[in-house]
Amino acid sequence: MSSALNPAAVTRTLRDWLFGVCHAIDSGSDVSMVRPDKISTAKPTVNLFLYQIEHNPGYAGGDLGTRRSDGSLAKRPTTAINLSYLVSFAASSEIASNNLMGAVVLAIHAHPGLTRSQIAASIAADPLLDGATLATQTEAIKLSMPQISLDELSKIWGMVTGAQFWLSIHVLATTVILESDSDPEAALPVRGFSAAALPSFGPSIDSIWSKGHRVSDPIETGATLVLKGANLLQPGTNILNAGLTLTLDSGETIVPTKSADVPDAIEAILPSSVPAGLRQLGAQFTSSGHTVTSGIFPFLLRPILASATVLPGNNVQLVFTPSISADQAAFAVFSLLSGDFADQHRIELPSAGRPYLTATVDCSGFPAGDYIVRLRVDGAESLLQFQSVAPKVQPVVTL
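^ thats the sequence. predicted structure below, dont judge the formating
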């Protein structure tokens, strides 16, 4: 059995059906399946010419994930196509060709499809179609006559060198399903199951901010996070859902508490080990071995530059938190206090010795002056501290 024979089965079934339609009008007529330049005019003839195949858009994306991560087949690869036919009417008499055209157009309009019994009979009559699965496919074969312009029709005929033009119509046959003969591997049997009571909807996080700050304020290392969302608390209570935990993409797991200051919110203290940069946080319930997980919520965690000290030779020692790991992009950014803030000197922190909480950078090539210092880790930049006395911003070093 092979669905690869199905397109040919459509052509043969359409030919057999039209043969009966044409004989009802002219018993001496014939139905051929040749290129338009090979059409015979020995008798009134209807010719089928399959000139275009297109993927059926209704099946687009419906065949994703046919293989597992180890490459084994999970389900049979399947696709679907539409067949476009040029149906031509050739006869020595214009009236005879018009009669055949009228009969075919009326038949397709009155019966816009091929029945399973018609398909099965045509397959049985042709040894070349032995094994075709068209008669048993889930989709019925539908016929239509889409309108094509004179320009499109001339292009179709132009593809066939030396062909005499005959009165023609466009017939579209949909949907032909093609399915691989490969047998997917059976999934492993279920070893056991258990039942547990879980929330009807999983948790979700709608907003995250640093405690004591506005929602729009930056989040720094070591902050206490405030989270609001859905299904973080038991409905109608101020009690955490049992087994609620928070997980960061960096691997840390946090057990939150109910917020005493913000209604319907929970709090979680960020461990000092969480790396600076763009982080992702998710929530999950775990009960009786079953887990319901939220989507991830991203937030930018900024490092803290605790101090910047000038050493002999115009070297600057930076002390910061959290530690910077080997795979992070870390830079010290210096901007002249009295100049254009956009005029920056950027120095990459040394990679040797990571992870570390302090680093020394060489600023001997900088022009003399007062410099604002910032630390940038994976795109997250340390915040500046503002004060009422000069210099009104910190940290600042004098080189």
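DSSP finds four helices and 26 strands in the chain.
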